[in-house]
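Notes from the 1:1 (GR / supervisor)

We went over the backlog. Supervisor wanted to see one worked example end to end before approving the batch request, so GR pasted a single chain during the call. The sequence is below; no edits were made to it. Supervisor asked that the structure be written out right there so they could see what the output format looks like.
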Amino acid sequence: MNYLYTIFFFDISALSFMLVLSYLSKRLGEALKIRPYYKILYITSAIVLSATSIELISLHDKILPFQNYITMGMRLGGAAIAFFVCLVYWKWLFGEFKK
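Structure output shown during the call:
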């Protein structure tokens, strides 16, 4: 059961982080005239939220076979997509660190 609380806390923090980054990326994209890739961050937030929902709905009974692997895969996929989307907007920071 502690596992579920830890994952739930992680999901809430990841959702918050993705929503803040989507807002900041929207503002940065408008300033730099970049296509609106930040909308993909909303989709990745929905993926993480759906993984959390699946685990919370089925606290005692597993709905899907290999449910833990499926929900962790959803989280991993959402995080990987969010990482690459954020690189589109924030890659200029790496050049600033090298100066």
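Supervisor's comment: The chain has a mean pLDDT of 87.
Batch request approved.
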